[in-house]
Amino acid sequence: MKTALDKIIDYKHSEVAELKRQISFAVMDEKARTASPARGFSSALSRVAADDQNALICELKRKSPSAGEILPGADPVQIATEYEAGGAACLSVLTDGPSFGGSLEDFAAIRAAVAIPMLRKDFMIDPIQVAEARAWGADCILVIMASLEDTLAAELTDCAIGYGMDVLVETHNEAELERALRLPSPLIGVNNRDLKRMVTDLSTTERLAPLIPPDRQIVAESGISTAAHINRLRQTGARRFLIGESLMKRGSERQAAVRELRTTSCN
Ligand SMILES: O=C(O)c1ccccc1NCC(=O)[C@H](O)[C@H](O)COP(=O)(O)O
């Protein structure tokens, strides 16, 4: 049976075909090369983590396949500024429309309102999406090992690095991790969401973290909502955390919630 990720990848092929009808790679490449410089996603995380603090990547998404509607009328700029004021090191902004309710227009509006680096969170299957991400100001892209062959994962990674962006390489299990470690990106995401069963389990990070060499940086992703979760994940050595749904749902306490997760267990 197809997972939610498989279904997303199916329609990404149509989206990319439509994008290529509208604009050539050469034109998109030129836009990418003349965009304002990337802000340094990985280095912003490392500045916080080097102090043994929690480097948070706070995520914006209106809905998701696992949660359904999260915050349908969300004002992305307001939420992003709350994340930044609470101490987020970086942002992750879903630009996928059909499954997550995001857009590149949201991305650009947020980038104009905050100073911290931003991940364009989308489902990359073609270099033109990487160029598009940079053209719209992205500082980092996501490469999901579960949905890419090795050659394409390497091509997308090289393309992003060539534009001065960072790459978060996402894994769910040992086999994907082994493949991810052949790529030149230091940022290795461990996603705690099982895309077949649509449940999160922090023991995924606990299992994979010891397999990640010290020259790579672990990003624990999904299913994080409390200080206890951060404390537990810190035991694995992780200092970088990607958090979405739980913060989107915090309403008027959002900024305080970011601050609490940012500082928990830190000296
Ligand atoms: O979240 C989903 O349902 C989902 C389904 C298919 C592909 C990706 C999906 N999620 C993307 C993510 O990895 C999360 O948005 C991210 O790690 C944040 O997770 P959370 O804090 O649990 O919202």
From TrEMBL:
Its EC number is 4.1.1.48. Pathway: Amino-acid biosynthesis; L-tryptophan biosynthesis; L-tryptophan from chorismate: step 4/5. Pfam families: IGPS. InterPro entries: Aldolase_TIM (IPR013785), Indole-3-glycerol_P_synth (IPR045186), Indole-3-glycerol_P_synth_dom (IPR013798), Indole-3-GlycerolPSynthase_CS (IPR001468), RibuloseP-bd_barrel (IPR011060). GO terms for molecular function: indole-3-glycerol-phosphate synthase activity; phosphoribosylanthranilate isomerase activity. PROSITE patterns: IGPS. Residues 5-261 form the Indole-3-glycerol phosphate synthase domain. GO terms for biological process: L-tryptophan biosynthetic process. Keywords: Amino-acid biosynthesis, Aromatic amino acid biosynthesis, Decarboxylase, Lyase, Tryptophan biosynthesis. It catalyses: 1-(2-carboxyphenylamino)-1-deoxy-D-ribulose 5-phosphate + H(+) = (1S,2R)-1-C-(indol-3-yl)glycerol 3-phosphate + CO2 + H2O. Belongs to the TrpC family. PANTHER family: INDOLE-3-GLYCEROL-PHOSPHATE SYNTHASE (PTHR22854:SF2), TRYPTOPHAN BIOSYNTHESIS PROTEIN (PTHR22854). NCBIfam families: PRK00278.2-4 (NF001377). This is Indole-3-glycerol phosphate synthase. It comes from Hyphomonas jannaschiana VP2.
